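Example 9 (inverse folding). The structure is encoded as follows.
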């Protein structure tokens, strides 16, 4: 059981995330490595400036998909949101997100390992490209089953 207020050396704690194992239940903590944050700051202004967008996505996602596939199927989740605005990565504030979704990828140890913008699926516009049931049936799916969908 994951309890609140845990600590992990080398990680920032992201509180109040929706639990992919029990999305309607108790909130949990996710973890983001300090090294990943530092690398984002050094090499990708867009990623670094959107850490807050990633934190908001795990708290209030539109959807959560399971079994992320990156070449082969691996255990994990993808949190999906559709913010109206995101950070530009140019240090000049917010920009319109347009017709794209924001995704946060989490591994089976509840560690965030990637985040960013994704195109919408051509069939299910609230899912990232390759996450709709049709995409899975056609063999072009990048994700496994839909675990949770926001209803309100």
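The amino acid assigned to each position is listed next.
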């Amino acid at each position: 059981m994951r309890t609140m207020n845990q600590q992990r050396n080398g990680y920032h704690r992201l509180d109040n995330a929706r639990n992919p194992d029990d999305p309607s239940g108790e909130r949990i903590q996710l973890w983001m490595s300090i090294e990943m944050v530092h690398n984002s700051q050094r090499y990708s202004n867009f990623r670094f400036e959107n850490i807050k967008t990633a934190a908001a996505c795990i708290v209030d996602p539109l959807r959560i998909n399971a079994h992320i596939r990156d070449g082969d199927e691996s255990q994990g989740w993808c949190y999906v949101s559709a913010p109206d605005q995101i950070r530009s990565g140019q240090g000049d504030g917010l920009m319109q997100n347009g017709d794209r979704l924001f995704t946060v990828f989490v591994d089976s140890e509840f560690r965030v390992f990637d985040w960013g913008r994704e195109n919408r699926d051509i069939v299910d516009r609230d899912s990232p490209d390759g996450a709709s049931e049709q995409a899975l049936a056609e063999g072009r799916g990048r994700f496994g089953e839909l675990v949770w969908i926001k209803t309100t």
